[in-house]
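[Discussion] Sanity-checking designs against the backbone

I'm trying to build intuition for which residues belong where. Below is a structure token string of 540 positions. I'd appreciate it if someone posts a full sequence so I can compare it with mine line by line.
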């Protein structure tokens, strides 16, 4: 087998963000761009040589081309075995599971997660390490350093491999194992939940559901789980065929993007449980007859109802810093530890590995448990289904019961799309204003505390500074500011707004949070520094 080595020059922008390297597809299509970054990954993770690599993606445009490039480079790098999803398809949580169960050194997931797909849309490459979780900052830093010093890359000069069927291919010193992961993932879910009880109760309760895969990676897994194993009707599935452009959908499961699901739920009151997942299957949205469940609440509700999760013993919980404090109230009541981490799933890994937490989540439609080291959309949906069937209650009833007991943490996120310079300027100005803001009142609202969130991992002591600016306001209201690390153009300033009310749990979110939202924009000087009089997007 001929190994070809090609000279290359470094790119200066291969610095992974919140969740891998994410750029416009056309950037990845630049000659040698993919090869450079893959070489940087291989070199930064020395033990891949002679080890096992898991490989797959969410099926988006360019997935097929990049899979073949990586297979050929893996042979040149003498990786012992590459486990690749059939047709290159592999959800993020399933990749995490495979890395863990097959003792792989790591995994490469081709996805820009919830960003749209296509030649003029987004692509991404994410590296996960041995524990199955996203590479931590030290590893992504090493990858970035390698990318800045690359001078050549190598690949096996062979035809494309047939990855359309399950089989094993020997190539040089590498074995390529093509796997249909549908069964593997469905088996994992069946090992975590009592499918036979759920199936019986679904029938007894005549439960009707809708699940929207948004034409992304989870379609096949969902059919196997919901229809084949849980006996639900085929009509339960919406957009369950994986398409390279996701059928033009924006596979970010929130109420703005899931029109079809929301309107089906509104028009047919006999369907009491709706759900959706994102491009690579790690995010989830839960919908009741009335409205979508706020992800921060979803985490709290799973924690409060964990006795209905088939015996899952919850040792502790964690939430990302912008996520509302709803889960903190449950943890306090249950007398368990609750950790606050920076944004990004990579920060939960050490806590999960150390057995300190069992459940974790983010406000950005992500929840998961210790069964893998990624958030898991279908797991969360099954967890809700497990609770609903065990308690014979609807989503709306469960949410209302929760608020009645704990009060309600109103939450929304305002996104402002600005230039990179404006984003940096707004954020840095806020960070340097924290000292002077603390203890003052603005528009009659007292700012009790103001600080930059610097994190020290309680398990390994790793530090991650400057992860956001937090303003704690009176009456348990809070503003959090940070810059997105997953965008591909300019900058997005995220302003997270929350307020707690013990008694009033039924107000519309925008009106309840209006005053704090306006204060948030004013304190960030959005009008003055970026000419913004309203957010580009409000998610609630
Ligand atoms: C966003 C979310 C974050 C999530 C990440 C990957 O990152 O806010 O919670 O972990 O996507 O799904 P951001 O763009 O804010 O950096
Ligand atoms: Zn995702």
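Best answer:
Here's mine. Compare freely.
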């Amino acid at each position: 087998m001929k190994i070809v080595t090609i000279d290359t020059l470094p790119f200066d922008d291969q610095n992974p963000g919140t969740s891998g390297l994410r750029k416009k597809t056309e950037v990845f299509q630049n000659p040698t761009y993919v090869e450079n970054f893959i070489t940087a990954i291989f070199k930064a993770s020395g033990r891949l040589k002679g080890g096992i690599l898991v490989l797959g993606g969410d099926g988006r445009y360019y997935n097929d081309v990049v899979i073949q490039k990586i297979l050929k480079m893996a042979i040149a790098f003498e990786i012992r075995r590459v486990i690749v999803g059939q047709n290159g398809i592999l959800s993020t949580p399933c990749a995490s599971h495979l890395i863990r169960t097959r003792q792989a050194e790591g995994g490469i997931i081709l996805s820009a997660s919830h960003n749209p797909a296509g030649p003029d849309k987004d692509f991404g490459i994410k590296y996960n390490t041995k524990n199955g979780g996203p590479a931590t900052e030290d590893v992504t830093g090493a990858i970035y350093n390698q990318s800045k010093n690359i001078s050549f890359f190598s690949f096996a000069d062979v035809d494309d491999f047939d990855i359309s069927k399950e089989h094993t291919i020997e190539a040089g010193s590498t074995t390529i194992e093509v796997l249909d992961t549908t069964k593997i993932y469905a088996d994992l879910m069946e090992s975590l939940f009592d499918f036979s009880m759920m199936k019986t109760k679904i029938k007894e309760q005549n439960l009707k559901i809708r699940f929207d895969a948004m034409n992304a990676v989870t379609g096949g897994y969902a059919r196997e789980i919901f229809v084949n194993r849980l006996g639900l009707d085929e009509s339960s599935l919406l957009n369950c065929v994986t398409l390279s452009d996701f059928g033009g959908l924006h596979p970010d499961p929130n109420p703005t993007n899931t029109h079809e699901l929301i309107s089906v739920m509104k028009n047919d009151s006999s369907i009491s449980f709706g759900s959706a997942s994102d491009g690579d299957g790690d995010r989830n949205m839960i919908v009741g007859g009335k409205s979508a469940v706020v992800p921060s609440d979803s985490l709290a509700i799973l924690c409060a109802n964990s006795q209905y999760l088939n015996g899952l013993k919850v040792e502790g919980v964690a939430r990302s810093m912008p996520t509302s404090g709803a889960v903190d109230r449950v943890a306090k009541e249950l007398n368990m530890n609750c950790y606050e981490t920076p944004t990004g799933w990579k920060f939960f890994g050490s806590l999960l590995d150390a057995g300190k937490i069992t459940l974790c989540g983010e406000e950005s439609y992500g929840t998961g448990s210790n069964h893998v080291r990624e958030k898991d959309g279908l797991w969360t949906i099954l967890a809700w289904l497990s609770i609903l069937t065990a308690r014979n209650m609807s989503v709306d009833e469960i949410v209302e019961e929760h608020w009645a007991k704990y009060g309600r943490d109103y939450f929304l996120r305002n996104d402002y799309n600005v230039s990179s310079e404006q984003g940096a300027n707004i954020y840095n100005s806020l960070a340097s204003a924290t000292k002077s803001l603390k203890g003052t009142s603005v528009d009659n609202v007292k700012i009790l505390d103001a600080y930059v969130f610097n994190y020290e991992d309680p398990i390994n002591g790793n530090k991650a500074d400057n992860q956001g600016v937090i303003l704690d306001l009176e009456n348990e209201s809070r503003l959090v500011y940070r810059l997105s690390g997953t965008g591909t153009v300019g900058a997005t300033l995220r302003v997270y707004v929350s307020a707690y009310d013990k008694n009033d749990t039924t107000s519309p979110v925008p009106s309840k949070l209006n005053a704090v939202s306006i204060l948030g924009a004013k304190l960030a000087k959005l009008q003055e520094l970026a000419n913004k009089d309203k957010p580009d997007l409000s998610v609630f």
